Amino acid sequence: MNQAQSKNNSSVLLWGKHVVQAVLQNPHRHVECLYTLNTIPEPPFNTQRCPIRVVTADQLSKWLPHGAVHQGIAVRTSPLKSPDISELDPKQGMVLMLDGIVDPHNVGALWRSAAVFGASALIVTKNNCPPLDGVVSKTACGASELVPCIMVSNLVRAMETLKTAGFFCVGLAEEGSIPLENLDLWPLALVIGSEGVGLRRLTRQCCDALVSISSAGAFSTLNASVAGAIALQKGFQIGLRH
């Protein structure tokens, strides 16, 4: 067994200063060990929560994916418990739903934007989502400790559950008939489609509305994480009015 691996196979290894700091500040995390290079981290790292092991750069690099930018620090921790989708409260604001986004950098960036703009949950599908630790957590830059992620088997069923609870499911699509700037539905469940095909057919049909992002000219294609961030900012503004 790798020396950084835990006897508890469900634990995960996360890396990067912002991520580790957020993990150590999260009371819902059980932290098994903190790995660091040469020196003990200074505040704001809460190093009293767990054992600390000083390792070499070579050791840390062997334990992590090739090319991982670990910044000299990593932490072994238990996964966070996920709430049930039926527990989401419309009074807590919008949620973000990802319909088949598979690029871990896009998922991480969207998770980070969800935290910035006050989303109460991130919802992804079990079969069309990259592993939520590692690269996703590093890209999310600590947002995974603030916005809970819910994995569902069927996104359309999850949307129906949210609609029953009082959410408006709004999909982002280039051909959406409603410009994003004219949207005024609340509370929102924003649905972002995959990098290639966008929203799937059944997902589109389940949406209460499809919105588009206005552009300055003929070129209107945006990266999924950028489009999602723009939509989340609009959702945040709508929430302030309600």
Query: What order do the strands of the largest sheet run in, or round the barrel if closed?
Result: 7-6-5-10-8-11-9
Distance between termini? Answer: 53 Å
User: Approximately how much beta-strand content do the residues carry?
Assistant: 15-25%
Query: Any idea what the radius of gyration is?
Result: 19 Å
Give the class from helix and strand content and strand pairing.
alpha/beta
* The CATH class of the largest domain: Alpha Beta
Determine the fraction of residues in helical runs and give it as a percent range.
Answer: 25-40%
Reported by name, the CATH topology of the largest domain is Alpha/beta knot
Form type: elongated
**Mean pLDDT across all residues, rounded?**
88
The name of the CATH architecture of the largest domain is: 3-Layer(aba) Sandwich
E-strand count: 11
Major sheet description: 7 strands, parallel
Return the string of H and E elements: EHEEHEEHEHEHEEEHEH
Total domain units = 2
Number of helices: 7
